[in-house]
């Protein structure tokens, strides 16, 4: 059982996954764990990290009411469909990022959203699915080693998401590498490999759809003048943005390589089909006059040559062989062969 599986949410039905003062404390995750009553709008004694399950009604009501958020912020945090973005609203930051879904049974190209509202004394994060990055930071908070400020926690989350995208993209690259190597070693044209390449291209396109705006959102945050972010936080966000940019470039390269490899496999398939059709055409052309000859000899009327000769069959076969040889010589002379 993993650490995340053994963790018991503070209020699973209500949607309060956990809440702790930064940089965390064992008491917040022990018998004295925080409740909804401890999470007022002011979040006195902060900075505080509140992590919610956005699908739970209690969490939604708390965000729209007791959390003291602007209705626009609450609606953005609870929206069903989101794209990566970062906005400064009043004294806080609205940040929505995407990360690879590493939960069991997840689709291979699924990027899931984590939504954040960041203030100097409070950070609220919302998820629908579990995040490995959040689980790792929670483990650090349980021993008091999480980032000490909301800005540094935001930067750690962004960097953790970016780091976990690398192996996923490398896996796509390795698939293309293996197929290219197999193509060099063999002339085979496996339909399964073409399907693999199509899947790689589809995944790369899906990832890129979210990673390009994520790169822009992180770069905007790294340049933003906000009391939430220190200079070190901006530097970490810039590093995260650069990692996402490299991942995006790798995805574009992988997508293009997959497309080129697909085209090469398609060209090989067409060449092979052309050769087969060419061979069948030659066979049919050679057989056409022979079929005409046998058809004439097989009609059921009088006067068929050699019908009464005991050497008739041998003579006809010899004649047909000579006609076939003559055809082949004529094809060679016309450079059809």
Characterization of the model:
It is built from eight helices and six strands. By secondary structure, it is an alpha+beta fold. It has a six-stranded mixed sheet, with helices on both faces. Helix 5 (150-185) packs antiparallel against helix 6 (191-222), helix 5 (150-185) packs parallel to helix 7 and helix 7 crosses helix 8 (312-333). The longest helix has 67 residues, at 231-297. The model has no long low-confidence stretch (mean pLDDT 84).
How would you describe this structure in keywords?
single chain, 337 residues, alpha+beta, six-stranded mixed beta sheet, rod-shaped
Give the N-to-C terminal Cα separation.
Answer: 68 Å
Q: Percent of residues in beta strands?
A: 5-15%
Q: Tell me how many strands there are.
A: 6
Q: If strands are numbered along the chain, what order do they take across the biggest sheet?
A: 1-2-6-5-4-3
Helix and strand element order: HEEHHEEEEHHHHH
Q: Please outline the major beta sheet.
A: 6 strands, mixed
Mean pLDDT: 84
- Our Rg estimate from Cα atoms comes to 35 Å
Molecular shape: rod-shaped
Helix share, percent: 55-70%
How many helices? The count is 8
Structural class: alpha+beta
Write the layout of secondary structure elements.
Elements: H1 3-6, E1 16-21, E2 48-53, H2 57-64, H3 71-78, E3 85-89, E4 92-100, E5 111-119, E6 122-127, H4 132-142, H5 150-185, H6 191-222, H7 231-297, H8 312-333
Parallel strand pairs: 2-6
Antiparallel strand pairs: 1-2, 3-4, 4-5, 5-6
Helix pairs in contact: 5-6, 5-7, 6-7, 7-8
